Structure formats: structure tokens, C-alpha cells
């Protein structure tokens, strides 16, 4: 199993809005490896950028820690994987998943993927004038990394918080970057 490592330039953005949007299908990725509390995936609604979603490697009031799992959000979202993207809905057991820990990244094997109907929220973030968003399960098990290095659940994050994200440029075909004018909202 390849364990390629590279560096990505993560930044922080300000949470501007969190809106309940009803039920939809969310994707949990269960890796066949132990993840640290600060490892996660980059996922989002558009090619403008992605939110860092951390492993469930911490206890909450309603969930025990699951050091192998990432609750990555709505199945329609882009999953950023070292320069290319794919849809969360396309991830399967046996795939290699790129996880990020700050600027470091590595590949881990996917053991299984769980897709289930859950209540969802849309989080909107402004990162230096670039607007990005993600659709996440409205659950204590969904964590993001704040600028101060602490993890925050989607249930506890407030407008004005600064969370880790990765900026990108829209314009992809089958996950690979192409030159085109594209508007995504």
C-alpha cells in the first residue's frame, strides 16, 4: 500500500453562516488504519475550496471515539486528493484515501464506506475573500480544526470561528484540473 506524503498549503477561513438544510445522504469513511485526532479529509461543495474534516478520534456526549472514521458530509461533495478531486459518493473499500494533518498528507486504505440518511447543515466560510462551503451531518461526531489548534464539532462551532480549509480553483473534468470558466455556488 503506497504511503505517499506531500505538502499542501492549508489556510483558515471565517465561518459566516450555518444553515440546517434537511435530510440527505452523508458519507462516513472507515479507514483500515488508526488516524490521529488532527488527521482528516478536505471536502466541500465547490472547486473553490474545501473544509478540513477531522477523524472521530475524540469522545463526545453521544459518540465514543472511533480512531478509524471520518464523517465527511454530503455524498455530492468534492473530496480533494493531492491535486485531483472525486465525489464522496465514489469512494469505495479498497481505495487509498489521502488524509491531511496540517501541511502533511499520507495515503491510508479505505476499509468501508457507510452512506446513510441524516440531518444535514450547510456551513459557509470566507477565506481571504474566497467563499467556500460544505454540507455536513448535523452531529457531534463531525469535527473541524480551529485556528487555535483545537477541534470543534459542527454542533458547537459559531459564526466568526476560524477553521482550517484549503483553497483551490474551480474547473475540473473527471477530477482533473482543466482550464475553463466555471461558476459554482
How would you describe this protein?
This protein is an all-beta fold. The chain is built from no helices and 15 strands. The protein is globular, with a radius of gyration of 15 Å.
Sum up the structure in keywords.
about 180 residues; mainly beta; two-stranded antiparallel ribbon; 13-stranded antiparallel beta sheet; 15 strands
Which oligomeric form is depicted? single chain
Unreliable residue runs: 1-7
Mean pLDDT comes to 89
Strand content: over 45%
Question: How can the largest sheet be summarized?
Answer: 13 strands, antiparallel
What's the helix and strand layout?
Layout: E1 6-7, E2 11-31, E3 40-46, E4 49-54, E5 69-74, E6 78-81, E7 84-87, E8 96-101, E9 104-127, E10 130-137, E11 143-145, E12 151-153, E13 162-167, E14 172-173, E15 176-177
Antiparallel strand pairs: 1-9, 2-5, 2-9, 2-13, 3-4, 3-6, 4-11, 4-13, 6-7, 8-9, 9-10, 11-12, 14-15
In a nutshell, what does this entry contain?
This protein is mainly beta and 185 residues long.
Amino acid at each position: 500500500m503506497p504511503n505517499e506524503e506531500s505538502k499542501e498549503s492549508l489556510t483558515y477561513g471565517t465561518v459566516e453562516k450555518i444553515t440546517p438544510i434537511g435530510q440527505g445522504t452523508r458519507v462516513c469513511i472507515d479507514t483500515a488504519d488508526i488516524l490521529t485526532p488532527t488527521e482528516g479529509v478536505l471536502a466541500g461543495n465547490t472547486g473553490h475550496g474545501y473544509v478540513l474534516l477531522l477523524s472521530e478520534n475524540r469522545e463526545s456526549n453521544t459518540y465514543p471515539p472511533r480512531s478509524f472514521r471520518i464523517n465527511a458530509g454530503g455524498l455530492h461533495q468534492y473530496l480533494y486528493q493531492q491535486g485531483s478531486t472525486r465525489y464522496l459518493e465514489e469512494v469505495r473499500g479498497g481505495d487509498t484515501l489521502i488524509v491531511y494533518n496540517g501541511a502533511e498528507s499520507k495515503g491510508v486504505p479505505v476499509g468501508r464506506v457507510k452512506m446513510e440518511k441524516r440531518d444535514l447543515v450547510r456551513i459557509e466560510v470566507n477565506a481571504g475573500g474566497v467563499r467556500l462551503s460544505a454540507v455536513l451531518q448535523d452531529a457531534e461526531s463531525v469535527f473541524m480544526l480551529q485556528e487555535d489548534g483545537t477541534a470543534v464539532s459542527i454542533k458547537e462551532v459559531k459564526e466568526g470561528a476560524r477553521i482550517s480549509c484549503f483553497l483551490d480553483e474551480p474547473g475540473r473534468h473527471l477530477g482533473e484540473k482543466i482550464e475553463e470558466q466555471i461558476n459554482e455556488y
